[in-house]
Amino acid sequence: MINKNEAGWNFDNSYAHLPKSFFTSLNPTPVRSPKLIILNDPLARSLGLNVQALQSDDSVAVFAGNQIPEGAFPLAQAYAGHQFGHFNMLGDGRAHLIGEQITPQGDRFDIQLKGSGRTPYSRGGDGRAALGPMLREYIISEAMHALGIPTTRSLAVVTTGEPVFRETELQGAILTRVAASHMRVATFQYVANWRTVEELRNLADYTINRHYSDIEADENRYLSLLQEMMKRQAALIAKWQHVGFIHGVMNTDNMTISGETIDYGPCAFMDVYDPDTVFSSIDRQGRYAYGNQPYIGGWNLARFAETLLPLLHENEEQAIELAQAAISDYNAIYQSSWLTGMRAKLGIFNEEPDDASLIESLLNMMQKYRADFTNTFRALTFDKLEDTELNGTPEMAEWYELWQARLGRQQESKSSSHQLMRNSNPAVIPRNHRVEEALEAAVKQGDYSVMERLLDVLSRPYEHTTVQEEYCTPPEPSDRPYRTFCGT
Ligand code: AMP
Ligand code: MG
């Protein structure tokens, strides 16, 4: 038998040293008969873990919450945030932070079990998760990572050998999630609303030390925290827009302080370009539609700014002024992040004032002719316009001339432009029908080969080879729109 320390766990527990009111210390609820379904070998290695040892019964028991590895200190975090605009007390209702893995390089990552049992924050929920949604999070978070988008990652999924009851009986599962940290805008909202200013300062200082150490010596480091957080979120949301990712539930509890994408419940990728695209079954107003994501990012950041008021300045009016001035920069910061990435998607290196309108007119055409988002940019990259819905339209002929003229006005060669486009336009994204197909084989037939092939292709999204061809095809048109669900 392999000793569990051979797995390479090397835990520290800095969060557990914060004020006790920030969390509840408790162990996961053990499960009947855990079985390892998938393990992320490259991620495990990068964390300093031993892939072989992680497959032992002892390690699987750790992924299931049945055993607590040496040095771990399991806890559920408290937070309170805005869900669809309404403020609620939340917290880890079905997750346990088991510790912070310190890698051989000295980096710190939260290791969290999701679906690991009830906590004081479960609010009537069963604390559990089903296999399909946990594998879905695994696939999409790993695809996001490969696309170059900051995200929490997935180390392993185990089944529990216990049923979970949703509309039907499903197989229970636990995901091991890896994150820079699990602090959210909602963590600040909880402390700012219900705890003391001293505790708020404690949380902010901890955050700065863990995620924004560059600003530690700034004159007003809390203002710097707000500004830097805005930059990270603007950059993150711009990256989502560049690949057609729709998060689906941008509540303040699902916005991390580190700037990583978190919570892969109802998210999905857009096929046809349409800013009104919504997949989540509960988002009836389209609050979190594709085209609304940048705006909602700003709204959430304003909630974050409110929590920092007591730290920004001792005089409340001046604190509000500082926060407002910072927040009013958000649109410009976002627009600049978005433009930089969109220019790259079109092979443009330098800046011209009309770039935004060149890009907008392409997007407008794509919307009008219901063009596939990913494949349109692929076609432009490889000069295969005949493959797109825009081919032969009068607008496209005119736009193409403008674009070519624009490329002609920069120093860089055609081939550098082409290379930039290859690196900025993925060949494959996790298309909904492909993800569903993989999950169906895994969950219904216990056949994981479809998912493994998909994961392999998604791990190299910018390699434009024939291997990817098969995964580029959009779904057959259907009368029934694709729907996703929260909290499953
Ligand atoms: P989410 O929609 O996944 O962001 O979850 C919102 C809140 O509900 C968080 O506080 C979760 O911990 C909690 N939650 C979601 N599903 C469950 C569940 N099955 N049992 C307990 N809490 C849950
Ligand atoms: Mg959440």
TrEMBL record:
Sequence positions that bind ATP: G91, G93, R94, K114, D126, G127, R177, R184, D263
List required co-factors.
Mg(2+); Mn(2+)
Q: Which UniProt keywords apply?
A: ATP-binding, Magnesium, Manganese, Metal-binding, Nucleotide-binding, Nucleotidyltransferase, Transferase
Which Pfam families does the record cross-reference, listed alphabetically? SelO
**Residues annotated for Mg(2+) binding in this entry:** N254, D263
Annotated active site residues, numbered on this chain, are D253 (proton acceptor)
- Which HAMAP family has this protein been placed in? SelO
Question: What family does this chain come from, according to its entry?
Answer: Belongs to the SELO family.
The name this protein goes by in its record: Protein nucleotidyltransferase YdiU
Gene name of the record: ydiU
